[in-house]
């Protein structure tokens, strides 16, 4: 396509090449020891550098950062060494035995830093930070053993119990809720509390005096009870005439004894009398407080050794001021006491009308021989109509008058066991 000019020189002919000389084959160089391990570490570091969003501090591009980090670490080490220097001096001054003890105490602990160490580590101004120490935080010189959370709660609970133990009891009669009256009791409730405080609880001396008085009254009641069962009715009447207060004391003790009974015999007799006509005249031998006369509409003549009621006629029950055959019903309710029981029953036979009823209620434990007792009453002119022995505390017997007494002397089967109480 292009014309070569005439003046162009021809290129020189290529020189003949020399035949290639054979080279000695060199084997592979021996690898350095640990080169494969180093290559693997380099590969891992390269992969980690690609995975991390920032470059590692040991790489070449971050020499300034690594230098700053090393400087900060050195400064921290100096501060720590300056803080630990006085502690090491104190430990060196301590004896060897004490140092061993402190090491053992530290090993027994949970390994957590103390309160003094936490101050330099934990963030103080962080609002989301919650204190994990138990109880109030004290200074680093506190030598008390560290408590667990449960132990600290139990200690606080015991302190509150010990404190409330000596507080005066709150009055239960006046309740002032905190919602309605948060400032305390109003003036309306204060006089009521002050008025109740003196009578709410007696002082210790008053309680002891009351107990001693009760024991003395119980002892005197047992003494009087033993006398009434062991003497005649005339002697018992003489005792109460000389000491009128003795009968009141005896009656209180007697009422305390029968208060424990599920059914009182006088209530049973009242129930029977209410089923009969109110026109029947009743004679109550040993009436006490005239409960029978107060419970029925019948005319009731009350007799006893001393008067606890204006309706009582004080007399010996072997000689009552009534005419012969003037009453319809004669009642002996827990009053067959003394050594002359036959005189009481003969007097009841005298005042009863022919065909009249005799009611006897007596303690069950006093009957030694029930058949002998019924036979003795038959000798005194009474016939058994009904008997109730189901109650474990007392027996109730009903008789009709069939005639005058046949026996004049003492009757052997009429004896009853005295009702005595244990001496204390």
Automatic annotation (TrEMBL):
Organism annotation: Phascolarctos cinereus (Koala)
Taxonomy, superkingdom: Eukaryota
Subunit structure, as described in the record: Component of the eNoSC complex, composed of SIRT1, SUV39H1 and RRP8.
Gene Ontology cellular-component annotations: chromatin silencing complex; nucleolus; rDNA heterochromatin
GO BP field: cellular response to glucose starvation; methylation; rDNA heterochromatin formation; regulation of transcription by glucose; rRNA processing
Phylogenetic placement of the source organism: Eukaryota, Metazoa, Chordata, Craniata, Vertebrata
Keywords for the protein's UniProt record, in alphabetical order: Chromatin regulator, Methyltransferase, Nucleus, Repressor, rRNA processing, S-adenosyl-L-methionine, Transcription, Transcription regulation, Transferase
Cellular compartments annotated: Nucleus, Nucleolus
Alphabetical list of Pfam families matching this protein: Methyltransf_8
Protein role: Essential component of the eNoSC (energy-dependent nucleolar silencing) complex, a complex that mediates silencing of rDNA in response to intracellular energy status and acts by recruiting histone-modifying enzymes. The eNoSC complex is able to sense the energy status of cell: upon glucose starvation, elevation of NAD(+)/NADP(+) ratio activates SIRT1, leading to histone H3 deacetylation followed by dimethylation of H3 at 'Lys-9' (H3K9me2) by SUV39H1 and the formation of silent chromatin in the rDNA locus. In the complex, RRP8 binds to H3K9me2 and probably acts as a methyltransferase.
Protein name: Ribosomal RNA-processing protein 8
Compositional bias ranges of the Low complexity kind: 23-32
Gene label: RRP8
